[in-house]
Amino acid sequence: MNSLLKVENLKYKRTIAKKLLLTAPLFFLLVALLQSWFMPPEYAHSWTMVLALIYNWWPVLFIPLGAALVAGLVINQEKRAGNYRAVLIHPISPSYVWLGKIVVLVYHMSLTTLVLMGTTIAFGFITATGPVPWREILVGGAILWITALPQIPIQLLVAHIFGIFACIALGVVGLLGGVLAAQTPYWIYSPWSWPTRLMCPLMGVHPNGTFLPPGDPLRTPMVIPIGVGLAIVSLVVMSLLTALWFGRMEMR
Known about the structure:
The chain is mostly helical. The protein has one domain (2-251). It has helices at residues 2-11, 16-23, 26-38, 47-80, 85-88, 94-127, 134-148, 151-162, 164-182, 194-203, 223-251, and strands spanning 45-46, 128-129. It has a two-stranded parallel ribbon with strand order 1-2.
């Protein structure tokens, strides 16, 4: 399995998918630099504003579209390289090949989250005043990473069966549906809403980007352990189910 993970990791070297994962968070740093150039010298954000901007837009926009695009690119690259023939000629279970792909993407998503947290800190140093809210940055980043992971096996499966455009279309639908579901009690049924919903009590921000008033139901902190638990269980279950499906399909 270790050799398989190394092979999968090498596939992403110098690919668009890897560059996208590592550079997408830098968009916020560009925004910070533009703001520092054009906003009046006496004006500065609070760290609350910085976190509300980055940790709200990231799950609303970048996670669903980014996961869809990266999964589509990964599967598209695999199909162009021979549709798994170079790997499956070896005595390796196709299910392990699929699981290896998921594990490597989980790893790269962790690197993306580290870049996001670093970008958030840099953004704050450029535009904000006051002490750095380390707890919110670290805990929020970890929650965003965990709750984004169930989308990986789902999007890989859709990309493998229907192609990259269907995968991106699902990401767009997930984006819109996730934002709407995050405001309702039905958020638990949509993996695309979990990152957005859990940022509401942690950052005090509505999915539409406005600050939540004290006592708002969306501030309920109990959703955090529920969402994290759902994400972990869903990642494991969806990874195993899609791996079993892939293994049986490739065996036929």
